């Protein structure tokens, strides 16, 4: 299972948990689709709390990769580290997530 760090979660834009099915909120089904997930196929998006209580979203690698590509396009132009000589940890993590979708 691939795990996503909190800094990357901030740029991935998770959907409103109230709009999800119970299976999506508990991580049995992809957060952005309908694919059933296993420990081998899931991208773990961590435990969250909100108006609905605790929830544990996970995604399939394909959807996580697509969302990471969009997040990278939004993140990089506004990031000082991405525009300068420093390494941006968020960008590196997004690249890893994008590649995880290619390796399915």
The whole-angstrom Rg is 14 Å
Strand content: 5-15%
Mean pLDDT: 90
The shape, in one word, is globular
Structure classification: alpha+beta
H/E series: EHHEEEEHHH
Low-confidence stretches: none
In which range does the helix fraction lie? 40-55%
Describe this protein's structure.
This protein is α+β, with helices and mostly antiparallel strands and about 100 residues long. Helices cover about 40% and strands about 15% of the residues. The chain has helices at about 5-10, 20-25, 60-75, 80-85, 90-100; strands spanning about 1-5, 40-45, 50, 55, 60. The strands form two sheets. It has a three-stranded mixed beta sheet. A two-stranded antiparallel ribbon has the order 3-4. A hairpin with a 2-residue loop joins strand 3 (about 50) and strand 4 (about 55). Helix 3 packs antiparallel against helix 5. The longest helix has 15 residues, at about 60-75. The N and C termini lie close together (about 10 Å). The model has no long low-confidence stretch (mean pLDDT about 90).
